[in-house]
TrEMBL record:
Reactions the enzyme catalyzes: tRNA(Pro) + L-proline + ATP = L-prolyl-tRNA(Pro) + AMP + diphosphate
Record's protein name: Proline--tRNA ligase
Listed GO CC annotations: cytosol
Signal peptide (from-to): none
Domain Aminoacyl-transfer RNA synthetases class-II family profile: 18-119
Record's keyword annotation contains Protein biosynthesis: yes
A GO term for molecular function: ATP binding
EC class name: ligase
Organism: Candidatus Wolfebacteria bacterium CG18_big_fil_WC_8_21_14_2_50_39_7
One Gene Ontology biological process: prolyl-tRNA aminoacylation
InterPro entries recorded: aa-tRNA-synt_IIb, aa-tRNA-synth_II, aa-tRNA-synth_II/BPL/LPL, Pro-tRNA-ligase_IIa, Pro-tRNA_synthetase
Enzyme Commission code: 6.1.1.15
Assigned keywords, A-Z: Aminoacyl-tRNA synthetase, ATP-binding, Ligase, Nucleotide-binding, Protein biosynthesis
Length: 119
C-alpha cells in the first residue's frame, strides 16, 4: 500500500525514509492483523514464542553467516562478547530446538513469532 495514503488517512506518521510511527488507528489495524495470524497459527497447533532481538555472535558463527551478513547494529560488551540485532531468527531457533527437542516424540513442534525484524 502506498505510504502517502496511510499517512493521509492517519494510520502512520513518517519519521524518516522507511521508518514510520503507527498512530492509534494504524496500531489498531496492526493488532487486528496480528490477532488474525495468531488465531490461525493457534488453530494449526502453533505455539507463540518471543525470541530476543539481540543475538550472540556464536550462534551466527555456527552457520558461517556472521561474516557474510550485514547487520544494522553490532556491539561488543565490556567483556568482549559480540552481539548483533538479528535480521532473522534461524540462528536463534536452532539452539532452542536442540535444547527442547530430544526425541521424535517431541515432534511435530510448531512455533511462531510476531515481532520486529532489523533489516
Amino acid at each position: 500500500m502506498n505510504a502517502r495514503l496511510l499517512i493521509r488517512a492517519g494510520f502512520v506518521d513518517k519519521l524518516m525514509a522507511g521508518v514510520y510511527t503507527f498512530l492509534p488507528l494504524g496500531l489498531r489495524v496492526l493488532k487486528k492483523i496480528e490477532n488474525i495470524v495468531r488465531e490461525e497459527m493457534d488453530k494449526a497447533g502453533g505455539q507463540e514464542i518471543l525470541m530476543p532481538a539481540l543475538q550472540p555472535k556464536e550462534n551466527w558463527e555456527v552457520t558461517g553467516r556472521w561474516k557474510s551478513f550485514d547487520a544494522l547494529f553490532k556491539l561488543k560488551t565490556r567483556s568482549g562478547a559480540d552481539y548483533a540485532l538479528g535480521p532473522t531468527h534461524e540462528e536463534t531457533i536452532y539452539p532452542l530446538l536442540k535444547h527442547y527437542v530430544s526425541s521424535y516424540k517431541d515432534l511435530p513442534t510448531y512455533l511462531y513469532q510476531i515481532q520486529t525484524k532489523f533489516r
